[in-house]
């Protein structure tokens, strides 16, 4: 299967829209929101009393407090299980301290946003929060960090902690393997992971440590050598990291320091530049859809004058009255500059499922229907299960109808009939 969007189509059509009469892209002048918002003042006072589990998280909490003291919030929406702030594009964490970069992008961002309003609104209908309809045009919707994200070491890791790991905690994976027993890693500049719905990966609602996810990885590491790992990652996750209770959402992640303190989900660290009115990362999403996660490492000079990893989300409804309808949205990018050096850039593609569980069989379930695995790979491949804590899950392989082809049923047992 070819990539669902070509490079030219990505440039022309994967952005979002804006009305010409409003400009919520730039950082406004005037006092920040905290000077007149009692609600925001109370939020900052509340999180200031949190007790993070590590020194690094204490430092991040202080940065979070400082961030909310200087931004201009366009609109705040309180949902049942989370709060969303609509902020100017220029004041998102990755740009607020980089006004020159922001200014260089603004003209192109405004035009691209204006040209694709309908696409974003349609995409937003698949999420509990539709940032195209509920945020002012030109704003970026971000979740207020939950107590879990501000205090929990495990919620901020995608790799088991080196110290203090729970006795029964550990990671489990189902990935692709070749005949030599090596994980499949494709050297490429663009690829995709296609997970057919339903998205039934789950964690217990009150389990604040575990996660279950489907995703792709672009890494510098083929895992056949002991070197630090740097990555660009994108997928769908079930967790209680972003909402209470747990929910299923899309996420982005980048390892910029070998999964250290500066490697974060979504916009918890100032690494990911998110385009205006794109889906809010961490907000519950429609779990019945197919999700295609795409990466293209390229230069789109109208946004960034150097290469970056551009992430595109495609949703596909394969049932119901709107069967076969697809929507594509370019969410944003990770710049090459966030990685230590050109020699550390992620360049090998892989995909699959991952679970972190505090203990085996504690209610966290692995699940994924992965279509035509490893686009561009022509060798032999099979599923490789692994686990740090003997928390193994079933799997099986079938040949599906066109256009799906080979299907890996990850985390699932084949039933009779």
Question: Roughly what fraction of the amino acids lie in strands?
Answer: 25-35%
Task: Give the class-level CATH name of the largest domain.
Answer: Mainly Beta
**Mean pLDDT score, rounded?**
90
- SS-derived structural category: alpha+beta
CATH topology of the largest domain: Jelly Rolls
Helix content: 10-25%
CATH architecture name of the largest domain: Sandwich
* Spatial gap, N to C terminus: 28 Å
Radius of gyration of CA atoms, rounded to a whole number = 20 Å
Query: What is the total number of structural domains?
Result: 2
* Tally of strands: 19
InterPro entries: Glutamic_endopeptidase, Neprosin
Pfam families: Neprosin
Protein name: Neprosin family prolyl endopeptidase
Keywords: Signal
List keywords for this structure.
single chain; 417 residues; alpha+beta; Jelly Rolls; 30% strand; Neprosin family prolyl endopeptidase; Glutamic_endopeptidase
Outline the secondary-structure elements:
Layout: H1 7-13, H2 38-48, H3 55-68, E1 75-78, E2 83-88, H4 99-114, H5 117-124, H6 131-134, E3 139-143, H7 147-151, E4 170-177, E5 186-187, E6 190-196, E7 211-219, E8 231-239, E9 247-255, E10 264-265, E11 272-274, E12 290-298, E13 308-317, E14 325-335, E15 348-357, E16 368-371, E17 382-387, E18 395-399, E19 406-410
Antiparallel strand pairs: 1-2, 2-3, 4-15, 4-17, 5-15, 6-12, 6-16, 7-8, 7-15, 8-9, 9-10, 11-14, 12-13, 13-14, 16-19, 18-19
Helix pairs in contact: 2-3
InterPro entries: Glutamic_endopeptidase, Neprosin
Keywords: Signal
Signal peptide: 1-22
């Amino acid at each position: 299967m070819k990539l669902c969007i070509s490079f030219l189509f990505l440039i022309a059509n994967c952005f979002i829209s804006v009305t010409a009469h409003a400009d919520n892209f730039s950082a406004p002048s005037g006092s920040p929101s905290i000077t007149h918002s009692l609600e925001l003042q109370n939020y900052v006072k509340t999180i200031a009393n949190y007790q993070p589990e590590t020194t690094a998280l204490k430092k991040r909490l202080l940065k979070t407090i400082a961030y909310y003291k200087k931004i201009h919030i366009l609109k705040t929406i309180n949902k049942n299980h989370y709060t969303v702030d609509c902020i100017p594009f220029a004041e998102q964490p990755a740009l607020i301290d980089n006004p020159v970069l922001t200014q260089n992008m603004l003209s192109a961002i405004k035009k691209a946003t204006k040209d694709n309003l309908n696409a974003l609104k349609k995409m937003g209908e698949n999420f509990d929060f539709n940032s195209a309809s509920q945020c002012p045009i030109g704003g970026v919707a971000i979740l207020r960090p939950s107590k879990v994200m501000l205090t929990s070491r495990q919620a901020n890791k995608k790799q088991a902690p080196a110290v203090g790991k729970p006795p029964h905690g550990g990671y489990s994976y189902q990935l692709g393997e070749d005949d030599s027993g090596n994980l499949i890693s494709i050297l490429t500049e663009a690829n995709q992971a296609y997970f057919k719905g339903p998205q039934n990966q789950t964690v217990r609602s009150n389990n604040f440590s575990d996660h279950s996810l489907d995703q792709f990885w672009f890494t510098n590491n083929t895992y056949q050598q002991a070197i630090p790992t740097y990555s660009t990652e994108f997928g769908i996750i079930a967790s209680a990291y972003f909402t209470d209770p747990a929910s299923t959402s899309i996420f982005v992640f980048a390892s910029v320091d070998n999964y250290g303190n500066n490697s974060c989900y979504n916009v918890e660290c100032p690494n990911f530049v998110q385009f205006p009115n794109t889906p809010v990362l961490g907000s519950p999403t429609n779990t019945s859809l197919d999700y295609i996660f795409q990466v293209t490492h390229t230069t789109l000079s109208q946004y960034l004058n150097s290469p970056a990893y551009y992430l595109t989300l495609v949703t596909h409804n394969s049932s119901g009255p709107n069967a076969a309808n697809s929507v594509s949205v370019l969410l944003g990018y990770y710049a090459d500059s966030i990685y230590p050096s050109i020699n550390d850039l992620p360049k090998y593609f892989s995909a699959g499922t991952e679970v972190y569980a505090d203990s085996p069989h504690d209610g966290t379930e692995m699940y994924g229907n992965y279509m035509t695995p490893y686009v561009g790979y022509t060798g032999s491949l099979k599923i490789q299960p692994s686990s740090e804590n003997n928390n193994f899950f079933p799997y099986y392989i079938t040949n599906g109808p066109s256009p799906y082809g080979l299907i890996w049923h990850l985390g699932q047992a084949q039933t009779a009939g």
